[in-house]
Amino acid sequence: MTVLQDRLPSPQEAVRSFLSRLTKPARILVAVSGGSDSIGLLLGLHGAICAGEGAGHELVAATIDHELRPEAADEAEAVAHQCKDLSIPHTTLCWSTEKPRSGISAAARDARYRLLMEAADGLNADVIVTGHTFDDQRETIAMRAARSEAGGNLGLAGMAEAVLIERRRWLLRPFLNVRREAIRDFLRQSGRGWIDDPSNADQHYERVRVRERLADQSDVALNVIQSAAQRRSQLAEDAAMLARRHLRVAQGVLAHLAPEAFNEQSEILRHLLANLAAILGGRQHLPATTTMDRVMAMLDRRRMGRMTAGRVIFDLRREGLFLHRENRDLNTTVVAKGTAGIWDGRYRIYNRTEDEVQVGPTPSERNMATSLFPDAPAVVAMRAMAAMPHFKPVLSSSDAIDKASVIVEPVLSPYDRFLPQFELILGCELGLSFGCNEFPPAPIKVFERKS
Predict the structure, then answer these.
(1) What are 94's strand-pairing partners?
(2) CA geometry: angle 19, 113, 150, nearest 5 deg
(3) Does 147 have pLDDT greater than 50?
(4) Whole-Å CA distances, 425 to 369, 419, 428, 442
(5) pLDDT tens digits for range 201-236
């Protein structure tokens, strides 16, 4: 790793910069665990706003008790008392459901963000802020680098300063360029303490092992991280422009890339195809590097034919490349009345009928298929039609259903839970192509990309 050359900001500087870059007065939900990072963020924001540096901004706070340690309830209560002393509205939410036997860290992370969204709804917050630090950033980059040594590993950009959650509310990280020790110095000078979570020293967790390994190593330079982030943002922007020029999506299930797209830069085309494959396949993660290598090899040869990758058929013809969900493993699911469910990772179904609704693949019929997809070859049209959702009541003997009472929304699996700011332009472009509502813009001014 290279030696850190960029001067990192103090907590106070980071808070002032953050508040000055918010595009409008906001009600800010601070996620506070009681650790030094989140307590430092809470106190830094509170001090700046009280000093008049955040005109119009308000603070609220939330603590998530994962119910994994008996001390957690007392820690949440201690945070609540601190917030009361500062006249900051506070709520505690608990992860009370049954815990998984494996993958507990990922499950706890998902629960934390889900509960923070609930807290933001309840407290009418505009944005959520967390205390992720530069130390967290370099640990994240080290873990992602260990998983892939490829020079094009997009994970080397680290965590984004801004992330859109559930396509409706932004999570921001004001301390992402601040060292943890600087935050602790700030707290010591303020006469404030914090709570050390014992899990932060538990060698069972990958992040803890990485943290201890990095303790004896020099830092990755801030400008190296910024360069990787700028590269990732530029790649996403270029892929969005490619999509705007050459991509058409029909009925939300059949993507078509015009032949001219194959003359574009390979890296840009690859990135667009990987994102399309994840969306069409209902997958949260982009296809593996080896999978995309196979796809790009087929395109490089320019031989007509098809292949399946990531549950998606890539069908190369003279008219261009057609992509759609393969017809295998299209299961049926039942959505109870008055509830919502996800089908195949691609659609969110709201059932407002008085009956349970069964959702499965659409029976394919040639004439209907060619009517739905007039610009596609008939065989492609029929396969695409079979990937569309079909509804019927569970209890009624008739297949008739009040379609106006079944609301269908597209799910963009790689973006639906977390959309980092790096990918926002591409996410918005593909969202429009697949029939989604526009995503809310980031509520913070970003520094201009360096040339």
Answers:
(1) 65
(2) 90
(3) yes
(4) 32, 10, 5, 11
(5) 555 566 556 656 666 555 667 788 889 899 999 999
Summarised one tens digit per residue, pLDDT across range 20-32 is 999 999 999 999 9
Pair of tokens at residue 111 = 């629960």
Comparing C-alpha atoms, which of 114, 12, 129, 110 is closest to residue 61?
Answer: 129
Question: What does the pLDDT look like over 349-404, one tens digit per residue?
Answer: 999 988 899 999 999 999 999 999 999 999 999 999 999 999 988 876 566 777 78
Domain boundaries along the sequence of the chain: 11-226, 333-410
Q: Does this model's pTM top 0.85?
A: yes
pLDDT value of position 433: 97
What is the H or E stretch that residue 61 is in? strand 58-65
Q: Which residues pair with 321 in a beta bridge?
A: 257, 316
Instruction: Show Cβ contacts of residue 122 under 8 Å, excluding neighbours closer than 6 positions.
Output: 91
HSE (CB half, 13 Å, CA atoms) of 107? Answer: 13
Q: Are 387 and 330 in contact (CB under 8 A)?
A: yes
- Spell out the residues 6+ positions from residue 438 whose beta carbon is closer than 8 angstroms to its own: 428, 431, 432
Instruction: Give the residue carrying structure tokens 């019929």.
Output: 365
* Strand order across the 58-65 sheet: 90-94, 58-65, 27-31, 127-129, 169-172, 162-165, 418-420
CATH class of 11-226: alpha beta
Q: What is the separation, in whole angstroms, between the first and last Cα of the chain?
A: 23
Instruction: State the Cα–Cα distance between residues 280 and 410, nearest whole angstrom.
Output: 10
Contact 233, 241 (CB under 8 A): no
User: By CB neighbour count within 10 A (0-12 exposed, 13-18 middle, 19+ buried), where does 112 fall?
Assistant: middle
Give the rounded percent of residues in the chain with a pLDDT score beyond 70. 90
CA distance linking residue 63 with residue 120, whole number of Å: 11
Dist CA 287 CA 291 (whole Å): 6
What is residue 112's three-state secondary structure? helix
Helical packing angle, 134-147 and 222-246, nearest 10°? 60
Q: Which amino acid is at 156?
A: L
Which token pair is 357?
């609704």
- C-alpha span between 180 and 131 (Å, rounded): 10
Containing H/E element for 379?
helix 378-385
The structure tokens 């008996």 sit at 70
Which residue intervals of 2-150 are DSSP H helices?
11-21, 36-50, 72-85, 104-123, 134-147
- Within 8 A by CB and 6+ apart from 279, the residues are 346, 412, 413, 414, 430, 434
Sign of the torsion angle spanned by Cα atoms 63, 69, 73, 78 = negative
